[in-house]
Specification:
Shape: globular
Bound molecules: zinc ion
Strand content: 15-25%
Strand order of the largest sheet: 3-4-8-7-6-5
Number of helices: 3
Radius of gyration: 16 Å
Largest sheet: 6 strands, antiparallel
């Protein structure tokens, strides 16, 4: 059911692009139900404007701007929207792209959708608890998965392991 709805949404986006409509990638997952939901006004209060743009409007932060790029302590990267743990520091790697990158998420932490914005077919990654946009998924990552979760640092927080 969810998958079908996403496919339909993708079709609508494709159509909008085809007829030259200016399409803004706002809240692409708004029709899905997530465990953590807030109204748009509440999200604006909870998040900084830059975080809101990424998490709720699928914006992309400028590369090499996130302090988390250089976060090399042991710990967990969590969703800046709902605090769900998303990535373990042991799966983080330096992709050279300027965005925090991971080769695997924590079990069940994230979901993906097809993103056709900007005339590209990409796989967008979102938090499975609040639906917040996190970044994109590519298949040119390192072993063992070969995947590259290219994340916006603005969408993440870091919790160092205390032990
Ligand atoms: Zn979240």
């Amino acid at each position: 059911m969810t998958r079908r709805r996403l496919l339909l949404a993708g079709g609508a986006v494709g159509l909008a692009a085809a007829v030259g409509t200016v399409w803004r990638p706002a809240a692409p997952l708004a029709d899905q139900s997530f465990a953590v939901t807030y109204t748009d006004a509440e999200w604006r209060k909870r998040l900084s404007p830059a975080q809101y743009a990424v998490l709720r409007e699928s914006d992309t932060e400028r590369p090499f701007t996130s302090p988390l790029l250089h976060e090399e302590r042991r710990g967990t990267f969590a969703c800046a929207g709902c605090d769900r743990d998303l990535f373990a520091s042991t799966t983080k790697f330096d992709s050279g792209t300027g965005w925090p990158s991971f080769w695997a998420p924590l079990e069940g932490a994230v979901g993906t959708t097809q993103d056709t914005s900007f005339g590209m077919l990409r796989t967008a990654v979102h938090c499975n608890r609040c639906g917040g946009h996190l970044g994109h998924l590519f298949d040119d990552g390192p072993k063992p998965t070969g995947l590259r979760y290219c994340m916006n640092g603005l969408a993440l927080g870091f919790k160092p392991t205390t032990a």
